[in-house]
Design brief:
Helix content is 43%, strand content 18%. By secondary structure, the chain is an alpha/beta fold.
């Protein structure tokens, strides 16, 4: 079982030569992460964006562009479409978001959804390594599906469970998060959680232990569960947190990153090739972690 990004990097090193298309490569942190990944044997980059800017920044960060393929594009839309085309036609083994705006890249991906999608839907996961937690924690979906329906939550979970199993967790423990543990009409996520538990009990979500609705204190603290008089098999040990909507996931992950120094990697799941989706403000480390995660689980 992989429990750290160091272990993920070592796993990715075994799969040398993966070609990753970088959409919007004209960014300092982007090219620093590409340089680090290339030096570690994780990827062979294909850079898309303004060639003059790429060359200038590459020189600044010490990245040699010798034998690196560059596709010159100026408009973000053209960059996104060209990058998506590279994974569709199997020229690249994966796609990484650089300086291109997320909505523009996602539109290019969704425009070819029927050709690229292999799962029930495309969804985003953030994988976190937190110093105060004993293993990886996955949060989904904080980057793709804005306000998921019950059906979409089922698809999000299936994607996340399959990813956790690739990381070596045979039977992931899932907390379907809400503010409280009781079914409440004004909180539709609590009813969704109840139905998802029933689906998991019937085996519709795969090999998984799933509980919900469950508040985040109970998810991580058996003592909180005892105080509330709740019996939980996953309290203190969840692998996956299913959040009610994109805002909850985004805020939670970025909060842990900023305040708890969590190490983070992010991917879009459900496509035939790994899609490394990052915030433009993400650090070099986060970008590198995400590249390693995409390669290791491809």
């Amino acid at each position: 079982m992989l429990t750290s990004f160091k272990a993920v990097v070592e796993e990715a090193k075994k799969l040398q030569g993966k070609k990753i298309a970088v959409a919007g490569a004209e960014g300092k942190a982007v090219l620093e992460a590409v340089k680090l990944a290339k030096e570690n044997g994780l990827m062979e980059p294909i850079l898309l964006g303004n060639e003059d800017k790429i060359e200038t920044i590459a020189q600044r960060v010490g990245l040699s562009l010798k034998n690196i393929e560059i596709h010159h594009t100026v408009e973000e839309k053209a960059t996104a479409e060209a990058a998506v085309g590279l994974i569709h036609f199997d020229i690249a083994d994966g796609l990484m978001k650089g300086k291109v705006n997320t909505p523009i890249l996602l539109k290019a991906i969704l425009d070819r959804k029927e050709e690229l999608c292999t799962g029930p839907l495309l969804s985003h996961i953030a994988l976190l390594e937190i110093s105060t937690y004993h293993k990886f924690l996955m949060v989904t979906d904080g980057g793709m599906v804005i306000q998921p329906t019950l059906e979409q939550k089922s698809g999000i979970l299936k994607n996340g469970i399959q990813m956790m199993q690739k990381l070596g967790v045979d039977r992931p423990k899932v907390a379907v998060l809400a503010a409280i543990e009781t079914i409440t009409p004004g909180m539709p996520e609590t009813k969704d959680a109840e139905i998802l538990v029933q689906m998991a009990d019937r085996g519709e979500l795969g090999d998984v232990d799933l509980e919900g609705p469950i508040a985040i204190d109970v998810a991580f603290s058996p003592e909180s569960a005892n105080i509330k008089g709740l019996s939980s098999k996953i309290s203190g040990d969840p692998d996956i947190l299913l959040v009610p909507n994109i805002s909850c996931g985004n805020i939670f992950v970025k909060g842990l990153w900023q305040l708890a120094n969590a190490k983070v990697g992010g991917l879009i799941l459900g496509a035939k090739k790994p899609i490394i989706l990052l915030s433009r403000s993400d650090t070099v480390e986060t970008k590198f972690n995400s590249i390693a995660l995409g390669v290791a689980t491809s």
